[in-house]
Design goal:
Layout: E1 24-26, H1 33-44, E2 47-49, E3 51-52, E4 70-71, H2 77-86, E5 90-95, H3 102-114, E6 118-122, H4 130-141, E7 145-149, H5 159-170, H6 176-186
Parallel strand pairs: 1-2, 1-7, 3-4, 5-6, 5-7
Helix pairs in contact: 1-5, 2-3, 4-5
Length: about 210
């Protein structure tokens, strides 16, 4: 299993659950890994958000409004990638292939530049242990706002299934009374998922160096 991390980095100052568990999933809304993470968060009643390019740009057209994303000033994919790294406690990159390329590789570079913890989990390197590795990564770095990144669907058509399976193994569904409590606390009266964290910070980050 590929598992590479940077240093701890700074905290984002977002509120924490008393249990110390996952509070929010952040992603850029692209097809593939991004979209799968957001779908999983919505299905589980977990707060979600993040930055997407101006015009809600994605390879399949405008990102649907059901995804509660904020648009960056630029239509550049790089800017939203940088902001999502900056505004999260840590990043997990999920892919089928072991070697990072394109935007996924740039995500890892930005995490290093910002001093944020990051983890790459590749199915080809032994995906059976991915859920346990992700849980350990979150505990080790005290991550509550998790940025989920990875290839788009046109690059790895089956990456969405891998993302969903890893998240399901990392965060098993509670049962019985615990499940009822989660459902009650994670839903607003109108049935929409309640955001338990404030909106992301200003979309004016310091310019990231192109060096790794």
């Amino acid at each position: 299993m590929t598992a590479r991390k940077s240093g701890l980095g700074g905290r984002t100052g977002r509120p924490r659950e008393p249990s110390g568990g996952l509070v929010r999933i952040v992603s850029g809304g692209q097809t593939g890994a991004d979209r799968a993470a957001l779908n999983w968060a919505i299905a589980r009643g977990i707060s979600h958000g993040g930055w997407c390019p101006k015009g809600r740009k994605a390879e399949d057209g405008p990102i649907p409004r059901r995804y509660q994303l904020m648009e960056t000033p630029s239509a550049s994919y790089l800017q939203r990638t940088e902001l999502n790294v900056r505004d999260s406690d840590g990043t997990v990159i999920l892919s089928l292939a072991e070697t990072l390329t394109g935007g996924s590789r740039r995500t890892a570079e930005l995490a290093r530049q910002y001093g944020k913890p990051w983890l790459h989990l590749a199915k080809s390197a032994g995906g059976r242990d991915a859920g346990a590795l992700l849980r350990r990564f979150l505990r080790q770095h005290d991550i509550h706002v998790l940025n989920v990144a990875g290839p788009r669907a046109s690059t790895e058509p089956e990456v969405g299934e891998f993302v969903t399976s890893v998240l399901e193994r990392a965060f098993p569904r509670p049962s019985g009374a615990a499940a009822f409590r989660v459902a009650q606390t994670s839903r607003a009266p109108d049935g929409e998922a309640r955001s338990r964290t404030p909106s992301p910070r200003s979309a004016n980050p310091p310019r990231a160096s192109s060096r790794s």
